[in-house]
Design a protein that fits this description.
The chain has about 675 residues and is α+β, with helices and mostly antiparallel strands. It folds into 3 domains: about 190 residues, no CATH class; about 220 residues, Aminopeptidase (3-Layer(aba) Sandwich), CATH 3.40.630; about 180 residues, Immunoglobulin-like (Sandwich). The chain contains 16 helices and 21 strands. The protein has a 7-stranded mixed sheet, with no helix packed on it. The chain has a 7-stranded mixed sheet with strand order 12-15-10-9-17-20-19, with no helix packed on it. Strand 19 and strand 20 form a beta hairpin. Helix 2 packs antiparallel against helix 3 and helix 5 runs antiparallel to helix 7.
Length: about 675
């Protein structure tokens, strides 16, 4: 085992090496040495981690503190903003301002802390981490601008509330003339404030659009999208509010007295701008006060002059209704500005020849409304009682029609005075509206806006600046000028009593693309579910279909080519025909035509379907089929189905104008 050298001395180095080899061959000793080596390595590793953590802590300690403070301020800002919104619903405006201001400050501090974190050298070098922090920053900036918008909105409301002399339950009817003037003056001067609120919302929306909802923010994707939609809705409301701030005071006689010719259109007897002109009124306002509003049966103007004027009507009226044209049929054009000017012309002409008529040398404008507006207002004010009869949202139109068509005989009222009850209802409704508390005003204004959008209320102003505001907001009832595909179906009840109340309508519009261009197929359906009585008869309508200029008619199923009229007006081509539908009958009419080449484009397609005032279509279908695949479309909603790569289908209600855009 030992090898002795020839030297006199022992070789201890050799002996030690041999001993080690011998020890390593012993299992327990070998294991202990291996463990010691592992412990040694672990010790070095732990010391290395401690040193590295110490260095990391020294380098990033400020960022940790900034992150903690950032989270704290952002959470506090969220709480304050939510509290401000909740207080706003309770109309506690001063408290809203306090909470919104605190929220804005919280988000400002959190953005400051985030910027300090981003300024770190090592974080700046990490693109992935920096992009996530940028997304968080955009969210915080969005919240900051939202807080500003809430504060400014509350501040505006608070200043308006102060005009109420501290009484939140004070209603408009109890305002002094001076206070009414102050309120209208405040509204008139509010455009800069409202634009400031909208600017903050625009910036909030812009920052929210920059956020990439991936990575750390993916769990909040649905919530962020919901907030984005809510901001967009409020932005649209504010756009209307800015316009209303300019329009409302002028329409209500601030700063100058105004007079309007008001036409009540009965949409149960549908005409191109909403309904038969059975009643007219003269409305005089000054500083928000109704000075005078008298309503009259339209025949009080027409009948006394029937032998004094000889105006040739449009051919369909002459052929199917009457040989002469009077005020009651003046709204033949579906374009409200055109019809309003014609109505004014007839009023001036007939009132000059009628000594009993009220002579107004010039109106500030003409307003038309259907019963739907009245029923929506009654839903807010509650019922009104006239002649012992209660008129409410559910019974107003049917009850009033019976009163002026049949009920007046029972009451012993002459046929000449049968519509005077409308003026009495208007007076009672005016009192109800002016007795509303401030919360009710906002409901009433929202009802007005909804009815303007649905075209149950049409405005025309002789002031070009006000008329531009009306048109820009879609409240003017004008036939839209668009460069894309276009469709408007206009029915005109010609002597069919109030039969539109017994009619259901549906519409299907199909566009298909061939090698020779775009071809349209329109199907319009009528279902008459009524029975013949004092207000219902066979339905008779002269129906016009307005399409892009230059469209070429191919055929109308159900009519010989010679029975279909066509023409050009209002920048459109139109096809027209006279139709009848018996009680209990369902009829469909199919109109096929080729669209002009100007409508088709290799890159995109657009369609604007315009709703006729006074008419809702509950079942409408749009089916668009192209040669090229569709890359994107709007609006993107659940009601639109992509049937194939090159085909879209929409189903819904035509209760407002509808617009579609497709990109190939």
């Amino acid at each position: 085992m030992f090898h002795l050298s020839k030297s006199k001395h022992l070789n201890f180095a050799h002996l030690l090496k041999a001993a080690d080899e011998l020890a390593n061959r012993i299992p327990q000793i070998k294991k202990r040495r291996r463990i010691r080596r592992i412990y040694k390595l672990l010790k070095y590793f732990c010391w290395s981690m401690v040193i590295l953590f110490s260095v990391w802590f020294i380098l990033f300690s400020n960022q940790i503190l900034n992150a903690v403070e950032l989270y704290y301020q952002a959470a506090l800002g969220k709480t304050n903003l939510e509290q401000a919104i909740a207080l706003g619903r309770q109309n506690k405006l001063s408290q809203v301002m306090t909470a919104a201001s605190a929220a804005e400050n919280n988000f400002h501090l959190s953005i400051y802390r985030l910027q300090e974190i981003k300024d770190n050298y090592f974080i700046n070098k990490s693109d992935l981490l920096l992009s996530q922090l940028n997304n968080i920053e955009s969210l915080l900036i969005t919240a900051q601008f939202l807080s500003k918008a809430v504060y400014n909105g509350a501040s505006f409301g608070y200043s308006l509330e102060n005009l109420l002399v501290g009484d939140k339950k004070l209603n408009f009817a109890k305002f002094s003339p001076e206070n009414k003037r102050k309120v209208l003056s405040k509204i008139y001067e509010s455009a800069p404030e409202l634009n400031g609120i909208k600017a903050n919302l625009d910036l909030a929306y812009l920052n929210l659009e920059r956020v990439s909802l991936e990575g750390l923010l993916f769990p909040f994707k649905e919530k962020v999208k919901q907030i984005e939609n809510q901001i967009q809705d409020i932005r649209l409301i504010l756009e209307k509010a800015v316009s209303m701030s300019q329009l409302l005071p002028a329409l209500t006689g601030y700063p100058n007295k105004v007079k309007y010719l008001v036409m009540l259109e009965n949409n149960d007897e549908l005409r191109p701008t909403g309904g038969f002109l059975g009643t007219y009124g003269i409305l005089e306002l000054w500083n928000g006060e109704i000075i005078n509003f008298n309503t009259h049966d339209i025949y009080h103007l027409d009948m006394p002059v029937k032998d004094k004027i000889n105006v040739i009507p449009p051919e369909p009226i002459k052929k199917y209704l009457a040989p002469k044209w009077y005020l009651r049929d003046a709204n033949w054009s579906p374009d409200w500005p055109t019809a309003a000017r014609k109505i004014d012309w007839f009023y001036q002409t007939e009132s000059r020849l009628n000594p009993a008529a009220e002579r107004i040398s010039e109106f500030n404008g003409t307003i038309a409304l259907t019963p739907k507006l009245i029923t929506d207002i009654l839903n807010i004010t509650g019922p009104v009682t006239v002649e012992g009869q209660s008129y409410n949202q559910a019974n107003f139109q049917d009850l009033l029609e019976y009163r002026v068509e049949k009920g007046y005989l029972v009451l012993g009222v002459s046929s000449w005075q049968r519509k005077e009850v409308i003026g009495e209802i208007a007076k009672e409704l005016k009192n109800k509206i002016f007795d509303l508390p401030p919360a009710g005003w906002f409901k009433a204004i929202n009802a007005l806006l909804d009815n303007l959008t649905a075209k149950n209320l049409l405005l025309y102003s002789g002031d070009s600046q006000l008329e531009n505001i009306i048109i820009d907001n879609g409240w003017g009832g004008e036939v839209k000028a668009v460069a894309s595909d276009y469709l408007m179906v206009v029915d005109a009840n010609l002597g069919a009593l109030k039969t539109d109340a017994s009619l259901n309508r549906n519409l299907k519009y199909e566009v298909s693309q061939g090698n020779n261009g775009l071809f349209s197929k329109l199907t319009i359906g009528y279902a008459h579910h009524g029975q013949v009585d004092w207000k219902t008869s066979v339905y008779k309508s002269y129906t016009r279909i307005y399409v892009p200029p230059g469209s070429r008619l191919i055929k109308v199923i159900g009519y010989a080519p010679g029975q279909v009229d066509s023409g050009s007006e209002l920048g459109k081509t139109w096809f027209g025909f006279y139709l009848t539908v018996e009680p209990g009958e369902i009829k469909n009419f199919i109109i096929e035509y080729k669209l002009p080449d100007a409508v088709s484009s290799p890159d995109n397609y657009g369609l604007y379907i315009q709703k006729q005032s006074g008419k809702d279509i509950e079942e409408a279908v749009v089916d668009l089929n192209f040669l090229n695949d569709i890359k994107s479309y709007s609006p993107a909603s659940l009601s639109i189905q992509k049937v194939s790569p090159a085909r879209l289908k929409w189903e819904g209600e035509l209760n407002m104008d509808r617009s579609f855009k497709i990109v190939f």
